[in-house]
Amino acid sequence: QVQLVESGGGLVQAGGSLRLSCAASGRTFSTYAMGWFRQAPGKEREFVAAIRWSGSSTYYVDSVKGRFAISRDNAKNTVYLQMNNLKPEDTAVYYCAADRSPLRWNTRILLTTTSWVGSWGQGTQVTVSS
Predict the structure, then answer these.
(1) Is the alpha carbon torsion for 117, 122, 92, 51 positive or negative?
(2) Which residues of 47-62 are buried (b: 16+ CB within 10 A; e: fewer)?
(3) DSSP code string of 55-89
(4) Please, what is the average pLDDT of the chain?
(5) CB of 58 within 8 A of CB of 50?
(6) pLDDT band at residue 84, thresholds of 50, 70 and 90?
């Protein structure tokens, strides 16, 4: 199992930016795909972005394309989510996720589900005011 700890959430006005970080420990971070999901009150957990273990591939939900960027630093065992031009509908608890299996990159359809996730962080609140 890998332990994941998110940070960087907060309150921001619409149009602003935040950078989320997720520090991982417990296993070989650099061999696992990582992702971010979010969950708004009363809604199901939603896929946001994912990145291959090498960092060479990324995938985003349509609603954040061009505004959010996922990246990773394998030397620091950390994955990031840079969020720009935030909108009120981005308000949610954001969760870091680690693949349950190493050295794989799922199809886009599977990435948008939670089926590939083996570990979750505790979540960090992002609130965007209008």
Answers:
(1) negative
(2) bbbbbbbeeeeebbbe
(3) SS-EEE-GGGTTTEEEEEETTTTEEEEEE-S--GG
(4) 96
(5) yes
(6) very high
